[in-house]
Amino acid sequence: MEIALIGNPNTGKTSLFNNLTGSYEYVGNWSGVTVEKKVGVFKNNIGHLTDLPGVYTLNPLSKDEGVVTSFFLNESVDRLLNILDASQLERNLHLTLQLLEFEKPAFIGLNMVDVANKRGIQIDTSKLSELLGVPVVPIVARNGKGCDKLVDVISTQSIQPAKKNLVYYGKEVEAAIVALTAEIHGKTNLSGRFLAIQYFEGNEYVRNYVNIIVGEKKLNDLIVNLESTLQTLYNVKSLANYIYQKRREAIEKIVVEVAVKSNFDIPLSEKIDMIVTNRFLGMPIFLLLMYVMFMLTFDWLGTPLSDALDGFLTGPITAGFESVLTAIHASNFIHALIIDGLVAGVGGVLVFVPQIFILFFFISLLEDSGYMARVALVMDRIMESVGLNGKAFIPMMIGFGCNVPGIMAARTIETPRERLVTILLTPLMSCSARLPVYALFVGAFFARNKALVVLSLYVLGIVVALVLAKIFSSTLLKSEASLFVIELPPYRLPQFQSLWRSTWDKGKGFVRKAGTFIFAGSVFIWLLSYAGPNGLKVDMDDSYLAAIGNMIAPIFDPIGFGTWQASASLITGFLAKEAIISTMNIIYFVPNDASLQGLLANYYTPLAAYSFMVFILLYIPCLATVATIYKETNSKKWTAFSMIYAFAIAYVLSLIIYQGGKLLGLV
Amino acid sequence: MIANILIGATIFGYASWALVRFINKSKKGKCGACDLKNSCSSNCEIPPKSL
Fold first, then answer.
1. Residue A644: how many CA atoms within 13 Å on its side-chain side?
2. HSE-up of A12 (CA within 13 Å, CB side)?
3. B28: contact with A, CB 8 A cutoff
4. Is the pLDDT of residue A78 over 60?
5. Which residues have a Cβ under 8 Å from the Cβ of A402 and sit 6 or more positions away?
6. Each residue of A417-426: b (16+ CB within 10 Å) or e?
7. A277 vs A32, which has greater pLDDT?
8. CA angle, A509 as apex, A504 and A514 as ends, to 5°?
9. At CA A587, angle to CA A448 and CA A512, rounded to 5?
10. Domain limits of chain B?
11. CA-based radius of gyration for chain A
12. CB contact, 8 Å: B47 with chain A?
């Protein structure tokens, strides 16, 4: 027996699916779209349960949603299991009524009855079952309550398809339904009424299906006549709109009889949302929260911890290594390799672990509490005005942690053009690997305004992305507007354990990279700085590293850092952004971070430092990101474009900042 | 003397290996470098291996 599980998004389908099935039969992808296809085996082995994507109506808005209609048209299904959210009955019933028109045996799992009760809504399930003509079982999918009863009810063989016509669409439409049904009679096994109504509503998949079995021209005339009649008689905008109204009237009648609403207070979640997603307050509140987050990361918590770690690494750890190496009579080469190369390079990156973890902790806190969904809403207005899909917010948000998963997340955007724009712009989101560089420089040059300066860099990345989105959408990559619908989950206080796990998941990649790539990179960079054309243990300015750096240093003269040291660091930054810090630590070899910061003052002015940070924010995605862009776009052209335009934008902005700043008398 | 060679060889050996592995993983993009690639179904048509 084939059973289809279908319902609105966020109604607990996945929980129910897991409760009803014992094992997977198949997990993969519906072809051509990104949604997962899950087929499970019912627990008491009565058949297969197919989990269909959540939709509000059968008429699809996107290819992902179209999977549902395709399934009904092309695959065999014996029973329908419709899951409803009891606290959102009116909205959910639109889909239910369409499913009942399909004329196959159907069952309803009325989920979230507990949530409805909390909101003061009581549902009379037996009355609902009587009105709809199908069994209705109240369940709480989250903990499995009622699911056994549901399985019993579904397995009963004697259920007949509900023959009730729940919606009367008026004289004219009903006549048209009869006419269309007559046309397709004998040519399909599917319910004529279902196909007719979906056809009239404009369901593209149904239209294609029906047009193949009946001539399109005949039906076209039918539709056009019907629509103009309705528009004249009832003053509706369109045929689809009329059908929706009729359905809504039927639903209202049902709800009045089965749902009892008692007085209840507006939930706290909604009260908070009225402020947080307010048109004018939303964005400033978000910026304020970001500012507080950065203050904690840099000023209040992160830097003190980081300094302590730095002191530990450059003090006891270094001394420890020194004494061990001296004790075993290690050569100067090995001494320098370990102390000047490894400890400096790897240590230089590890000292920023406190800041990284604190930042990730607060991001996890904002995500798990549900606030991030509100931010997506606040940003959506702005994003749509520059031609970005509101869904692009998620990839970009992830990109703030690491660009690679951010770009992968762009798969949720259906329109290819918008997806490409999102992929191209995500690298502009300042990833966590760039944070150590900012931390180092703001500590040296902007000690009193650390949080503000770093915030300005993050904001600059976002602003540049928005401006470029506007430019891309109006020139190279025009696309049609698309819909952005998001459900806001209720706020909740995250549990410490899940918070810690989220933070650790994000942060462990950083630590692991330090132990592997940064380690390796430090070794080789140190070697390049130790050896030169004239032999080993040369003056750094005569080393191979300097030679390489000097080759491209002149390019960076106009933007304030035309030194071989900066160039060499930037080159290593292509492989991994953290490597910039490692390289600098090795090049400017000094006992500890504090003196490094002092030393930097000899090579950079504050203006040049800011220009350098802006350059690093934008200049090129790291190797892993470039590879991911290539994999996701499958186009060498766009991958090359992403690298070139990034460099160009970085250069231009650094130029404006540095030269403009000099003109203004800044230093 | 032997300590020097031993230490040097270990460090350079590990560093070379780590470098090559990192570059290869980076070139593969996300899935190649991911720990969960044997059980994740986010971009495959076939069921996960561990089932």
1. 6
2. 28
3. yes
4. yes
5. A431, A432, A433, A509
6. bbbbbbbbbb
7. A277
8. 120
9. 80
10. 1-51
11. 31
12. yes
Q: How many CB atoms lie within 10 A of CB A288?
A: 11
Q: In 10 A of CB A30, how many CB atoms?
A: 19
Q: Which of B3, B22, B29 sits opposite A330 (nearest CB)?
A: B3
Q: Which residue of B has its CA nearest to A338?
A: B11
Residues on chain A touching B15 (C-beta within 8 angstroms): 519-520, 523-524
What is the model's pLDDT at position B48? 32
Q: A2-155, which class in CATH?
A: alpha beta
On whether the CB atoms of residues A464 and A649 are closer than 8 A, the answer is yes
CB atoms within 10 A of CB A128: 24
Which residues, including other chains, have CB under 8 Å from residue A418's CB and lie 6 or more apart?
A: A387, A388, A389, A392, A479, A482
Q: How far is CA B18 from CA A362, A482, A522, A574, A655, in A?
A: 31, 45, 11, 17, 37
For the residues of A270-301, what is the DSSP string, one character each?
Answer: HHHHHHHT-TTTHHHHHHHHHHHHHIIIIIIT
Of A31, A331, A624, nearest to B26 by CB-CB distance is A624
Under 8 Å between Cβ of A620 and A574: yes
Q: Which residues of chain B lie closer than 8 angstroms to A627, CB-CB?
A: 26-29
Which stretches of A372-531 are assigned E, i.e. beta strand? none
The answer to whether B9 and A335 have CB atoms below 8 angstroms apart is no
Q: What is the pLDDT of residues A608-645, one digit of tens each?
A: 999 999 999 999 998 888 888 888 888 899 999 999 99
What mean pLDDT is predicted for residues A465-471? Answer: 91
Q: Locate the chain A residue with the closest alpha carbon to B4.
A: A330
The helix or strand, by DSSP H or E, that contains position A26, with its residue range, turns out to be strand A21-29
Six-digit token string for A387: 């031609």
Cα–Cα–Cα angle for A482, A488, A493, rounded to 5 degrees? 150
The size of chain B, in residues, is 51
Domain edges within chain A: 2-155, 170-261, 282-483+507-663
Q: Is B14 on the interface with A (CB under 8 A)?
A: yes
Q: Using a CB cutoff of 8 Å and minimum separation of 24, what contacts does A411-415 make? A: A411/A34, A411/A632, A412/A34, A413/A389, A414/A62, A414/A63, A414/A64, A414/A482, A415/A389, A415/A479, A415/A480, A415/A482
Summarised one tens digit per residue, pLDDT across range B3-45 is: 888 888 999 999 999 888 888 877 776 555 555 555 554 544 3
CATH class of the A170-261 domain in this structure: mainly alpha
- Count CA within 13 A, CB hemisphere, residue A150: 30
Measured between alpha carbons, how far is A395 from A404 in angstroms, rounded to an integer?
Answer: 9
